[in-house]
Amino acid sequence: KQKDKEGNCYGGPAYYIEHALHKPLIAAVFCVFLIATYAVGFNLLCSYNLQSTFEVYSFYHPTTTPVIIGLVLAVTVGYCILGGGKRIISMTEKIVPVMGILYVLISLIVIFAHITHIPAMFAEIFKDAFNFRAIFGGLSGSCMVYGIKRACIPMKRASAPPRMPLPLRMSRIRPSRDLSRPFPFTSTRSCSARQRH
Fold this sequence. Notes:
By secondary structure, the chain is an all-alpha fold.
């Protein structure tokens, strides 16, 4: 990670590939795929989900409403991104508290608007949580996760660098001549010599 004259940070895998591996072509290809991933996999999907939430309202038009929402999102995101990390931070610290407050208020409004259904809700939760279908689903899911972990851990250990054997590591410890030092600085020879004295 590096800083420019204005104090903005930049860096990442593309810089590692270019400077450490000396592969500028691979770094450029990585940047292209990363931009495509964020544009299609993240931003496009999030904007589609956002505009689809307005389909339940009467003012929603399948042709014009997605375009308007997309333009508003494009302008807002572009304003944040083109301003660098400092602008993203300044926008985030203003938006996130408002989002949190609105989320809590809307949740309380929904709860109090349907407060008569709360006992039935808890009854339905406990009813569906302890039936055979739920128990079998939870058991099969936990078995699947355990099996995936059992398969991934040996692969991770196989790809890890080999550890140094214990005798070789102990032989690299230089014995201390000072017998008055505490445990972290004394070797096995100094400890045995102290016991003999």
